[in-house]
Amino acid sequence: MIKIVYINPVGTDAFDRPMKEFLDQYKSPDTIIEVTSLKSGPWHLEYYSYDALVIPDVLRVIKEYESKGFDAAIIGCFYDPGLHEAREISDMVVTAPAESAMHIASTLGDRFSIIVGRRKWIPLMTQNVVKYGFESKLVSFESVELGVWDFHKDIEETKRRLIRAAKNAVDKGAEVIILGCTVLFGFFKDLEKEVGVPVVDPIIASLKYAEFLVELRRRIGWSWSRIGMYEKPPKDEIEKWKLF
User: Alpha-carbon distance 193 to 235, whole Å?
Assistant: First the structure.
């Protein structure tokens, strides 16, 4: 059995149930998924300041589920907020949509494009592309100019915009498309039929990457290196300052 918590890092549970129902279709048979959200905070992370505000709560939720015996946590936003910070403090596997999707996309084709909701999102996502080492794999970002709460209001309009953006990306040389928002869950199959290339759904990607990393840990013993980037903070400091 693998126990995974998918964390919606927003102060609303509006997406929790539909995301769990969606993820349950793609999980391995021995995986149990729990989807949770934050008790308070912004209802979306379209602004970088909102992204920064939720990280402390995300870290606390991860430590909470680690204490419950979960094997992995997924930070469910394509900005990947707090991903490296979480790996620093937790012994669980921790994944996030952007990193997972880029790793998978880079094996499905030579180069990829990322479809985003708004132009606003592109600078921070570009920083992550560079940080993860995929700059040479990126063809383009394509914006559909819809916010997080717009994607599921008019499904057909969202599909039209996604198809147009994906076709533009393929014309520019993309061999794989990544959907650059977790709330774009459920659109990938229709898009694949229209453009004829793999379309990576980021929440499926983060789920399968989490299962893979748990398996690596259990069978081979591979996990985060504790030298350098993921060196853990001193336990006495965490306890003294009651950080998590």
Answer: 51
Q: Please tell me what DSSP assigns to residue 72.
A: E
Exposed / middle / buried, residue 23 (Cβ in 10 Å: 0-12, 13-18, 19+): buried
CB atoms near residue 225 (< 10 Å)? 10
φ/ψ of residue 125, rounded to 5: -65, -35
Predicted TM-score (pTM) of this structure: 0.96
Give the count of beta carbons closer than 10 Å to the beta carbon of residue 37: 22
179 phi/psi in degrees, rounded to 5? -85, 115
What span, in angstroms and rounded, lies between the C-alpha atoms of 239 and 226?
19
Kindly report, residue by residue over 53-108, the tens digit of the pLDDT. Answer: 999 999 999 999 999 999 999 999 999 999 999 999 999 999 999 999 999 999 99
Q: Helix axis angle, 97-108 relative to 122-131, nearest 10°?
A: 60
DSSP per residue over 120-172, as a string? GGHHHHHHHHHHTT-GGGEEEEEE----GGGTTTSHHHHHHHHHHHHHHHHHH
